[in-house]
Design goal:
Blueprint: H1 9-15, H2 24-31, E1 38-41, E2 46-52, E3 61-68, E4 75-84, E5 89-96, E6 103-105, E7 108-116, E8 121-130, E9 134-143, E10 149-157, E11 163-170, E12 180-191, E13 195-203, E14 212-218, E15 231-235, E16 238-246, E17 251-259, E18 265-274, E19 286-293
Antiparallel strand pairs: 1-10, 2-3, 3-8, 4-7, 4-9, 5-8, 6-7, 9-10, 11-12, 12-17, 13-16, 13-18, 14-17, 15-16, 18-19
């Protein structure tokens, strides 16, 4: 996963590399592979970060940053920032127990804490909404000029369940013996979240050859995907399609051409789908189509 620079907007602006502060690039390098609550820079102030929430895509996650003045003297002009430093989260809000925290940009808020009394503690409560699964990194920093403390916290965000379904039909429910017909299966993401790494599989009964396979992909109007990602392979009687990531409202259609056997019989063909995203409705993850050869 790509990481945003940990910008430390106020501290970097006022301190600068030449004044003893750390550059954003230095902090980004220090934070690579960071685990939960890692202190990147240690100044006079003490800092710890904890998090609560479901750690799922689309559901709010709360980060609580606790800043403490451990000295016997007050510290003036304390300021800092909180931000999402990975690309899979959106900062929703930040509120401090002392001083304002206005938004500085989409990923971060700047906090003006003012004077911290001896032994005082300031708590900053930040709400982040994860937008994609994987490691999510949250960065905090605070301090007076030339004396900053920086912390990075990384948690694993799980995908939220979505509803991917498959349905199917035959071009002829009673194809003639030896006649050609097709199966059409439609894979659709009903939402409410993107379905990752969707795959389709159909093992035709032994009496049905796989004559042809085509796949098409329809995207919702607001999708950022510009080309159909789906592709299919055939191994013996099995048709396997890599549908890829499916945004909400997208649909893939797989059409399989075959030939009816020469003997009268009833044939049931079942296709199924899978995804790395949890399925909130597994019951519609397979579809069976029955044809009667007469």
């Amino acid at each position: 996963m790509k990481l945003r620079q940990i910008s430390l907007p106020l501290l970097t602006l006022f301190l600068g590399v030449g004044c003893g502060g750390s550059s954003p690039a230095d902090l980004q390098s220090a934070g690579r592979g960071a685990s939960r609550d890692v202190v990147l820079l240690q100044g006079t102030l003490l800092m710890s970060v904890s998090t609560t929430g479901p750690a799922q895509v689309g559901l709010p996650q709360t980060f609580t940053t606790v800043i403490t003045n451990p000295t016997a003297a007050a510290i003036d002009n304390v300021f800092g920032s909180v931000e999402v430093s990975s690309l899979n989260g959106t900062m929703s809000s930040a509120k401090a127990s002392q001083g304002p925290c206005p938004r500085n940009g989409p990923p971060d808020f700047i906090c003006f804490f003012g004077t911290m009394a001896a032994g005082a503690t300031i708590t900053v409560t930040s709400v982040v909404v994860p937008t994609d699964a994987g490691p999510l990194s949250f960065a905090s920093n605070a301090g007076p000029m030339n004396d900053d403390t920086a912390d990075s916290t990384t948690i694993d965000i799980a995908p939220s369940p979505t509803d991917v379904q498959v349905g199917g039909f035959a071009s002829n429910g009673s194809p003639p013996r030896g006649g050609d017909f097709t199966y059409t299966f439609q894979v659709k993401n009903n939402g409410p979240f993107t379905a990752d790494a969707v795959s389709f599989s159909d093992t035709l009964p032994a009496v049905l050859p796989v004559n042809s396979v085509t796949v098409s992909f329809v995207l919702p109007p607001a999708s950022v995907i510009t080309s159909p990602p789906a592709s299919c392979t055939v191994t013996g009687q099995t048709v396997s399609c890599d549908v890829g990531n499916m945004p909400v409202g997208s649909q893939a259609t797989v059409v399989i051409g075959t030939t009816a056997p020469l003997d009268p019989q009833t044939i049931v063909n079942t296709a199924s789908i899978a995804s790395t995203t949890p399925d909130r409705n597994p019951a519609n993850g397979s579809a069976s189509v029955t044809v009667q050869i007469k």
